[in-house]
Amino acid sequence: MTYTFASDPSAGLDDLPSLIRWFLKNDRLLPNNLEILEEAHRVLHGPEDGWTYERHLASAIADDLRTYNSPELLQGHLTLLTTVHARTLEALRTLASPYPNLRSPAELPEPERHQMWGLCLMLGLTATRLRVEGWTYRSRYGEFLDVRMDTATRRSGVRAHASRKSRRRV
Question: Using CA atoms, how far apart are residues 165 and 84, in angstroms rounded to an integer?
Answer without folding.
Answer: 24
